[in-house]
């Protein structure tokens, strides 16, 4: 695959927590893009860190490894990666999860849209092909996306999707208040309020039987509804 690194200055960002089963294959499938790969280990207690460090020995991997001493939440891991992106002056970043539920083969679709349309935020949408998605996950994603779209004033098909492109401008100008799985919908909300160009991009739906979701159905649902309440305050402050 032809290198895109020099012309785009885009990095890949993978937050990971206890992903020893899948993190290796995710990284290896990202290497052919010749983009810097930033992995943020969010205090894993399994072999995730050791696997990433071993892969980092490959000079072709362009692998940057950042690590939290203890688990802080997915949003905190993303924020750590965003700070690195700002420090190193990347144009933007493509985020994907470390559990192999996103197909690295589709990174090229994001790169193509960035080059052609120069959007501020691209959100990967699983709603144009939901085959294989568990019903409870489908229903939850649909409801949360409908609520966030209503609050944002723009239809964003899959606000829980972690497969997305985020421009430097969005990272620089949006202050994130959350630390967990509510960070991704928060980012969508604030980007829409600031009138940034937000695009939906169809992606595959991939679920593995041996994958254990890090989402806590009770606590993360409560955090989401707390997010919607706080969003009314954030919106008011952004208008003043």
What topology does this entry show?
Blueprint: H1 5-8, E1 10-16, H2 23-30, E2 37-42, H3 48-56, E3 63-68, H4 74-87, E4 92-95, H5 107-117, E5 121-125, H6 135-152, E6 164-167, H7 168-173, H8 183-193, E7 198-202, H9 217-239
Helix pairs in contact: 2-3, 6-8, 8-9
Brief sketch in words of this structure:
The chain is α/β, with parallel strands linked by helices and 240 residues long.
Task: Using brief descriptors, characterize the structure shown.
9 helices, disordered N terminus, Spore Coat Polysaccharide Biosynthesis Protein SpsA, Chain A, 15% strand, 7 strands, 240 residues
Summarize the structure in words.
This protein has helices at 5-8, 23-30, 48-56, 74-87, 107-117, 135-152, 168-173, 183-193, 217-239, and strands at 10-16, 37-42, 63-68, 92-95, 121-125, 164-167, 198-202. Helix 2 links the parallel strand 1 (10-16) and strand 2. The model is unreliable at 1-7 (pLDDT under 50). The protein has a 7-stranded mixed beta sheet, sandwiched between helices. The termini are far apart. With 240 residues, it is an alpha/beta fold. Helix 2 packs parallel to helix 3, helix 6 packs parallel to helix 8 (183-193) and helix 8 packs parallel to helix 9 (217-239). It has one domain (5-239): Spore Coat Polysaccharide Biosynthesis Protein SpsA, Chain A (Alpha-Beta Complex).
């Amino acid at each position: 695959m032809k290198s895109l690194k020099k012309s785009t200055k885009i990095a890949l960002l993978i937050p990971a927590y206890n992903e020893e089963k899948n993190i290796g294959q995710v990284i290896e499938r990202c290497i052919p893009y010749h983009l810097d790969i930033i992995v943020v280990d969010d205090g894993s207690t399994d072999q995730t860190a050791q696997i990433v460090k071993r892969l980092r020995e490959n000079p072709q991997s362009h692998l940057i490894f950042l690590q939290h001493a203890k688990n802080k939440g997915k949003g905190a891991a993303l924020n750590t990666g965003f700070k690195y992106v700002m420090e190193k002056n990347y144009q933007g970043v493509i985020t994907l999860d470390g559990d192999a539920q996103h197909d690295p083969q589709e990174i090229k679709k994001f790169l193509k849209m960035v080059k052609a349309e120069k959007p501020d935020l691209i959100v990967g949408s699983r709603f144009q092909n939901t085959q294989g998605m568990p019903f409870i996950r489908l229903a939850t994603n649909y409801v949360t996306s409908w609520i966030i779209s209503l609050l944002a004033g723009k239809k964003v098909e899959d606000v829980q999707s972690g497969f997305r492109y985020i421009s430097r401008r969005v990272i620089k100008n949006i202050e994130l208040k959350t630390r967990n799985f509510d960070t991704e919908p928060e980012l969508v909300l604030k980007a829409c309020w600031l009138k940034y160009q937000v695009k939906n991009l169809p992606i595959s739906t991939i679920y593995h039987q041996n994958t254990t979701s890090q989402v806590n159905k009770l606590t993360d649902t409560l955090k989401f509804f707390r997010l919607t309440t706080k969003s009314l305050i954030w919106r008011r402050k952004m208008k003043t």
